[in-house]
UniProtKB/TrEMBL annotation, chain A:
Protein name: Energy-coupling factor transport system permease protein
Alphabetized CDD domains for the sequence: EcfT
Transmembrane helix keyword on record: yes
One Pfam family from the record: CbiQ
UniProt-listed InterPro entries: ABC/ECF_trnsptr_transmembrane, Cobalt_transport_CbiQ
Membrane-protein topology: Multi-pass membrane protein
A cellular component annotation (GO) from this entry: ATP-binding cassette (ABC) transporter complex
Subcellular location: Membrane
Protein's UniProt keywords contain DNA damage: no
Organism (species): Piscibacillus halophilus
Superkingdom, natural source: Bacteria
One Gene Ontology term from the biological process aspect of the record: cobalt ion transport
TrEMBL record, chain B:
Keywords recorded for this protein, A-Z: Membrane, Transmembrane, Transmembrane helix
Signal peptide annotation: none
Pfam families for this protein: ABC_cobalt (PF09819)
Membrane-spanning intervals of the chain: 9-29, 49-66, 120-142, 148-168
The species this protein was found in: Piscibacillus halophilus
Coiled coil: none
Keyword Transmembrane: yes
Protein name: Energy-coupling factor transport system substrate-specific component
InterPro entries: ABC_thiamin-permease_prd
Amino acid sequence: MVSSINPSVKMIAVVIPGLVLSLAFDVVTPLVFLTFLLLVTFFFSGVRLKKWLMFFIPLSLFALGLAWTSMLHTDEKYAGGDMLVNFWWIEITTGSLQVGVSLALRSMCFIALTLLFALTTDPTKLMLSMMQQLKLPPKLTYGILAGYRFLPLFKHELDLLRQAHQIRGVSRTKGIKGRIERLKRYMIPLLANAIRKSERVANAMESKGFTGSRQRTHYHEIKVKKNDWVFLTSMITALAIAFYLSYTLGYLNIFGKTF
Amino acid sequence: MNQWKLKEIVLMSILGVVFGFIYLAFFGVGKVLYGFFAPFGLADMGYEIIYGIWFIVSVIAAYILRRPGAAFMAEMVAALVEVLAGSTTGPALLISGAIQGLGAELVFAATKWKDYRLRILILSGVGAACLSFPYHFFAGGFDAYENWVVILLFVTRIISAIIITGLLGKFISDQLAKTGVLRGYALGKELQQKKRDEDVV
């Protein structure tokens, strides 16, 4: 199951394909990899299809926006091929259609990668794993975790501020100017409170003997197991296969150059 | 990092957390603008107009703490928090966070972390814009766009960085210093010193 993979390893396994995929401007490479990602998501992640689609569909609409931009304003390098549509100011050639679809598929890959990570990873475990495996300094780790735990409090404070303003009859001006004014009225007190809290937390940490030394023991030990390596290797292998397939089929296009 | 006091590290982390969530919220704003520009085939402009917001924690953290690395690390923490909170861009955000943070940090580094006047803060935002653009050119496939589109996007990002990152970033920090909560940090100390000098005069 993907949810039991070490969070740091999973993060690396998601970032690398994201970077490498950015090289490809053809349709086949992202399509093959997307197919692989969907298979992993549906058979090995335990994420419910309905939940997944709820995130995937709205995000994919923006992938279409990206495709639209690149289709309308295609660089000469990609815009070759026959004219498909020539209507008013819209000019679409086979080349620009191809690069548009490619970019849309690429962002769908990014979305699928992200969901594979985000829907199966526990934030606290990720932080602890980053401290234990990626050597993030304990001071920073616990600082971030403390800040993260404050979030419900921030929301509570925002409600308090709103009520306090209401009871004192602070007018809710409309329009852009009112919005900026409101932003200032909420933002500064909220941030000021956050800073006060951070100072208190730091004092509490120090008074309880937290030195931030790296030579420490961990209550929750997070290890790297064999399965984690299997996951990382299979992601990279699938990526290599995607590139290889599109190369053998003669589609591979890296930054406008066909191979 | 070793000369940092614990409370400075925790403050930076908390700033990172708070702004991580503000960054996430602005993705929503960006999406609305994105939809607005999409019919013209310039959907990316929606993000570029407000791009400066995504560099702001660098300037705020560096301006308040005045420590080498503050700009870079605060941006990294914000990116990490976005990932923790389940951003739709995912772990790839760490890379863009690192690049943006580095761009902001380089400007402070050029002054040897001594100069925190407005012009340096603005330059730091511009630094983040200049360094982050090539990365998005790469990851977003901007290579497929016509040249004028790419230039338009780039210029918009720089203007956004000047206004939002530089001016707004300094404004927020100064307002915070006025409340007195920053007394234990470099910016608050400077403000107190200034007040004392004025009293003497």
